[in-house]
Amino acid sequence: MVVFTQGCQFRCLYCANPDTWDTEGGHDMPIDEIVAKAVRMKSYFGKYGGVTVSGGEPTLQRVALLELFRKLHAEGINTALDSNGRILNDETKALLEETDYLLLDVKHIDDTIHHQLTGVSNKPTLDLAAYRESTGKTMWLRYVLVPEWTDQEEHLHAWGKYFSNYTTVEKVEIQPYHRLGTHKWKALNLPYALAATPNPDKVLLDKTASIFRTYFRKVIIN
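The structure assignment produced for this chain is given below.
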């Protein structure tokens, strides 16, 4: 079960959900209602399934999510947080303590390119990754593969080397760039800078996976 939250400080050029950027958008949903939905679906989750909170950027609503995750755990339901790692403070740390799986999007290892791609620095994301590693709790790393933006071989190796000694990284997920959200940019009257950027082909995907497998035991292409 996936819960999408509203609000995000990143402005990724390839964002599929620009409608989630505005913190004033979306609609309110009571936490107990979300928990009740999850409980009704619990039989479908199996041993490892549960509730994933995504966005936007869910840590913008970290206080409410802490309450949600605690109530889900009380019902025996696993929790996962799909985050860009922008916010790390005591409230976020409390939320991460209740997070069974952190799905951390590390957009680029080079800070200059990260700025160009997202509008912000990658330092907070790397800081959050280091904190998660220090807790010993499970983390999945995610990497969006965008031709001509995130496919530079030297930076892929640098990305892999940076996390190669992390013991909490259970797997790395490569997410191929796509243009499925472009209609939202058009509806919001926003220019889409990557309109001419192709989807990564099989050769590029396999090459990227091969590089990452130099550093990680489990690498998958979503």
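Interim note for the steering committee: Helices lie at 31-45, 62-74, 90-97, 111-118, 123-135, 153-163, 182-187, 202-212. The longest strand covers residues 169-176.
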